[in-house]
Amino acid sequence: MFNSQSPQQPSLSGISMASAGGAAGKTPADMHDLPDLCHKCGRCCRSATTFNSYPKLLELVEQGDQEAIDFLEIFEPFDSVEQARAVVPEQVQRVIDEVSHRKDMHLDELTFYHCRYVTEEGMCGIYERRPRCCSEAPYHGWSMMPPGCGFEGWQFEQREMQKAEIRKLKEIQYQMEALSPDGIRTASGSMTLDELRGKINEALAPWKTFGSQHW
Ligand code: SF4
Ligand code: SF4
After folding, report:
1. In terms of pTM, does the model score above 0.85?
2. Spatial separation of the C-alpha atoms in residues 136 and 17, rounded to whole Å
3. Which residue minimizes the CA distance to atom 3 of ligand 1?
4. Does residue 154 contact residue 37 with C-beta atoms inside 8 Å?
5. What is the pLDDT of residues 31-76, one digit of tens each?
6. How confident is the model at residue 8 (pLDDT cuts 50, 70, 90)?
7. First to last CA, the chain
């Protein structure tokens, strides 16, 4: 599910905070510092989705997976996608559009969740003890937040930074390929071209779903 992935891994959708402070809340030291951009609309708390199916989440709970436990402690599944659509239609459509072209997720396994603690006003009723999946969201540029979320600009910036990092590595690779006398070693000899290619592929892998092979 989204929450059980490493913050460096791409994931779908918004388990996020719409709270007093919401995304502006403190994030763990090992996470990026989130700017205070939350509009406190509460939509992400009413339309969460996970990478894993609901039955899989229940299985994880049985196995003692703490993140699955935390997640299902606050989130209740909607009975149907249509029920979720009635609440946050724009996010439901966004997630469906995304999942429909992914090979690692299936539309018929998609479940939307709403938090038990989001107030009518879109605030977090348990802000001080909200779980990590809330305090760390949006994890990165590709977390799928509802359209119009205050983090849209920040997420765009994050995505561009990620791409720029990878392009930089590719530039080095091309330069080294051109300069390397035997086509194998880098000029400095500190890293072979194959090692460099491996490093680039490693950096690209988590973002393939988002087209990183074309960056
Ligand atoms: S616990 Fe709070 S921040 Fe987390 S989803 Fe619920 S209302 Fe939103
Ligand atoms: S959708 Fe975005 S702006 Fe709205 S509450 Fe969630 S994080 Fe804040």
Report:
1. no
2. 9
3. 17
4. yes
5. 457 888 999 999 999 999 998 999 999 999 999 999 999 999 999 9
6. very low
7. 26
Q: What is the pLDDT of residues 148-163, one digit of tens each?
A: 999 999 999 988 988 8
**Which residues face 75 on adjacent strands?**
115
The pLDDT-based confidence of 205 (bands split at 50, 70, 90) is confident
Q: What residue spans of 22-102 are helical by DSSP H?
A: 54-62, 66-74, 81-87, 89-100
Cβ-Cβ contacts under 8 Å for 74 (sequence gap 6 or more) = 115, 116, 117, 126, 130, 131, 134
CB of 134 sitting under 6 A from ligand 1: yes
Q: How far is CA 21 from the centre of its chain?
A: 20
Owner of token pair 């997640």? 71
Which residue has tokens 């436990």? 69
- Is the bond preceding residue 10 a cis peptide, omega within 30 degrees? no
Quote the CA–CA distance of 14 and 20 in Å, as a whole number. Answer: 17
CA distance 185 to 193: 5
Around ligand 2, the residues with Cβ closer than 6 Å are 14, 16-18, 22-23, 38-44, 145-146, 149-151
CA–CA distance from 215 to each of 124, 196, 208 (Å)?
38, 16, 10
Shortest-distance atom of ligand 2 to CA 38: 8
